[in-house]
Specification:
Elements (H helix, E strand, L loop, with lengths): L31 E5 L3 H12 L3 E5 L3 H20 L6 H9 E4 L2 H5 L4 E4 L5 H14 L5 E4 L6 H5 L8 E6 L8 E6 L5 H13 L3 E6 L6 H17 L5 H10 L7 H8 L1 H14 L10 H8 L17
Parallel strand pairs: 1-2, 1-4, 2-3, 4-5, 5-6, 7-8
Antiparallel strand pairs: 6-7
Helix pairs in contact: 1-2, 1-3, 2-3, 10-11, 11-12
Length: 313
């Protein structure tokens, strides 16, 4: 009788590397937070979180920047309370739940979620994420408030890529309802759900975006700004007329030049450069030379007193 051929061992199903769990899954309860970077976006995010009654530590390398951030956050909340846009308790919450420190390790110790909000520079953000990877608990969620930089490129510098995602607020943080949550290649769905719940708890409207250049809003907005700059260059109309048309006819709250001045022309230019480079120099995303010239001359908009408009007081 012929021997029965040996059965081949059952093959294990292939699991892509980005779906393999490297360490224990992160926990998702978000009660204590840190925000890294106390600039316009950083202190706005910290202000929002503290007013919601959650403990948040704001950290920056410069104590003077932190002091100014607290002053600006306090003034902002007082103004919103006076206008009836926030309850009076918000100001008490800000004082109770917001703290500051220049010690990054102390700021992120024991946190459930850390939001990085430093300037739009990949090397700088990666340096911050390396430090977060060193000082945070293994289960701490690491989020970037980047406007357009790759979440996967940031995730690549930490030991557990699965705990990294994008959490992009818009300026002014207290008033803009939208928040983009950006999923990297390795971001698990349950992490997205947890951060969605967190954003909704802050009174925001979160949307999940893929990790593509510019995500959703900044990809659409490149054409809003870019075409306006080209029309200005071609003398189609003035800054004032183009803004007025977009406000009074198209229904936008602000025209493209007003909005660039509010955001900061340097920030807007950096985002445009990022989207242009990440999209392999797609022509429609090409930065305009006028923006570069204005940045080189320190004409950055409201924060410097002059941009496309002049600001007094």
């Amino acid at each position: 009788m012929a021997e029965k051929p040996a059965e081949k061992p059952a093959e294990k199903p292939f699991v892509p590397f980005f779906k393999r769990t490297v360490i224990e899954p992160v926990t998702h309860e978000i009660k204590t937070l840190a925000v890294v970077g106390a600039g316009t976006m950083g202190h706005g995010i910290a202000q929002l979180i503290a007013c919601a009654g959650l403990t948040v530590r704001l950290t920056d390398v410069d104590q003077a920047v932190l002091d100014q951030a607290v002053q600006q956050a306090t003034a902002s909340v007082e103004k919103l309370v006076a206008k009836g846009q926030l309850e009076g308790q918000a100001l008490e919450n800000l004082k109770q739940y917001l703290s500051t420190t220049t010690d990054l390790a102390a700021a992120v110790a024991g946190t459930d979620l850390v939001i990085e909000a430093v300037p739009e520079d990949m090397a700088l953000k990666q340096a911050v994420f390396r430090q977060l990877d060193q000082h945070c608990l293994p289960q701490t969620i690491l989020a970037s408030n980047t406007s357009a930089l790759s979440i996967d490129e940031l995730a690549g510098v930490v030991s557990n890529r699965q705990r990294v995602l994008g959490l992009h607020f818009f300026n002014p943080v207290a008033l803009m309802p939208l928040v983009e949550i950006i999923a990297g290649l390795t971001t698990p769905p349950e992490l997205l759900d947890a951060v969605m719940d967190f954003a909704e708890g802050l009174g925001k409207t979160p949307v999940v975006a893929k990790n593509v250049p510019g995500f959703i809003v900044n990809r659409v907005a490149r054409n809003f700004y870019g075409e306006a700059l080209r029309m200005l260059e071609e003398n189609v109309a003035s800054v004032e007329v183009l803004d007025a048309i977009m406000r009074e006819t198209a229904g936008f709250k602000m025209g493209p030049f007003e909005l660039m001045d509010l955001i900061g022309i340097d920030v807007n230019y950096a985002v445009t450069q990022s989207v242009y480079e990440a999209s392999f120099h797609e022509g429609r995303f090409k930065p305009h030379p006028l923006q570069r010239t204005m940045v080189e001359n320190g004409l950055l908009g409201r924060k410097t007193g002059a941009g496309f408009y002049h600001y007094d007081g």
